Every structure is written in C-alpha cells, then in structure tokens.
Amino acid sequence: MPTAPAFGRALTAVVTPMEDDGGLDLGGFRRVVEHLFAHGHDGVVVSGTTGESPTTSDEEKVALLRAAVEVVGERGAVVAGVGSNDTAHSVHCARQAADAGATGLLVVTPYYSKPTQEGIARHVEAVADATDLPVMVYDIPGRSGVPMTTETLLRLAEHPRVRGVKDAKADLWASTHVMAATDLQYYSGDDVLTLAHLTQGAVGYVGVATHVLGDEYAAMLAAVDRGDLTEAVAIHRRTIPVVDAVMFTSQGAIMAKAALHELGLIGSPAVRLPLVTSPPEHLARLRAALAALPASTARLAAAP
C-alpha cells in the first residue's frame, strides 16, 4: 500500500447545503467540512454527485471549492469534481478547480452519451492533460451507463497524473485485477462495499453515509490497517442502520442532508429539483438509525 496516497484516505463526497430558496448555504458548507475533519477525515470531494454537481453552476462550484480550501488548509485533500458528459467543459472545470486551490480532481465516466471505451479514455486523458493535479477517475456505471473496462483502466494507469480510482462498479474481482497490475490507488465509492475493498487492497474510501459515520469508517480503516479483521467486521455491521437509511430509501444526497439537518449542522435539508426532500417515513427510519449512534455523535445535535 502506498505510504502517501495522492488524495488522502478517508473522504466524503460532501453535500452542498442550500437555503430553502435554493441558494447556497456557504456557512453550512463550512460547518459540514469542519465536522468531517473533526470526525476521522483527511479529505473531501467537492461537487461530486452527492454535492448535486449537475444542478450547481460553475460559479457556485468555485465558491464551494474556495470555501473548502479555506476550511481544510493544510489538514488534508480537497478534491474537485470536474467531470461531465462534455469533455471541453470538463477541461474548463479542471483548470478552474486548479486555479481555486484544489489538490486533486475527480473525473466521472461521461454519462448519458454512452461513449465507447476509446472515448472514455480520451476524455479522461484530456482532463488529466489540462492541469498538473492528480486525477481520480470515477467508475460508476449505475449512473454513467457505461463501465470502465479493465483494459481502459490499465491504459489510464499509464498516464502520469491518473493516480486513483473511485470504484462504484460493484465488481470486486475486476478491481482486484487492476490493483494487481497497476499502481492505481483504489477508493471505495460504495459505502456497503468499503470493508470488502479495504481488505483487498484499497487505500481508502469516498463515502456518503460517512457524513455522519466518519468516526466509524475511520475506525474500520484503522482496524484493517492493523490486521484486526474481527474488529473491522464488527464496526462494519454497526453501520448497517445508518447506511440503510441514507443509501436505500430515496437518494444519498437527499438523505445525507436530512441527517446533517437532524444533527443540527445545516439549517435546511433543501435540495434542487429534480431532487426532492425526504418523505416522513424515510425521516422516521433515519431518526431511528441516528438515535442508535454513539453518544459522542448524537450530541452533535446540541453543538453550535
């Protein structure tokens, strides 16, 4: 395992808090980033899927990124989501992110267009050529419509700035092949498979339920590092109620915001259409799961 992963190890794809009228809540965003670093994190991804990147403007993305850079300082990584289904726009966003102080770039497989593997590779290479920042590619066929094949990932590994993979493909064997054949640093991009990814050589994770389970996932990572699989499995199982409530009700960004609102960290759980806030039955399930968290986390509700 690399001693100094390019993007840190314990990351969350941070939400974009919003006011009830849809405007950015930058104060809430800063509180969430600070909360993450107080609970086991050494990095954040800004303007990823959970940050509602499809419905935020380039100007808003810059404002969020600058706020994150200010809060994080020298404590860890600030990775900017710059991917889209338009290569030219992704290149523009990469340069914009570099100018705003990002320490790395997240590049998702171009979605909707369903490009060929050659097109995917050229897209990532174009973004990687645009700045000097390290690139984490994001393989999530459930959203993009097209998986990155092993051959494509092997090709991308030859680019000096393609350093990592956020894996949400749910194909652990394919991930094993790439990790065995390259120096690409793997990050679990699927909360339910984080333990499995870590035990087969992933360096870390980019989570969603980690908004409120930061300590738990950090402890799981530490247990794997010291070879205590029994403890890692026990922690993994303790996360089940919250992960189920956040990831298997409506949608991750919706429920992560709902959880942060329940814990008093953001003033509103508002999301932008086409996302809508949680129905009462989802909130009830979430509240029950949060109530079972350790007292140190539950007391966040009383924090300023």
TrEMBL record:
The keyword Amino-acid biosynthesis applies. The active site is at Y138, K166. This is 4-hydroxy-tetrahydrodipicolinate synthase. Belongs to the DapA family. Its EC number is 4.3.3.7. Catalyzes the condensation of (S)-aspartate-beta-semialdehyde [(S)-ASA] and pyruvate to 4-hydroxy-tetrahydrodipicolinate (HTPA). Coiled coil: none annotated. The keyword Lyase applies. The record marks T49, Y112 as: Part of a proton relay during catalysis. The gene is dapA. It comes from Lapillicoccus jejuensis. GO terms for cellular component: cytosol. GO terms for molecular function: 4-hydroxy-tetrahydrodipicolinate synthase activity. It catalyses: L-aspartate 4-semialdehyde + pyruvate = (2S,4S)-4-hydroxy-2,3,4,5-tetrahydrodipicolinate + H2O + H(+). GO terms for biological process: diaminopimelate biosynthetic process; lysine biosynthetic process via diaminopimelate.
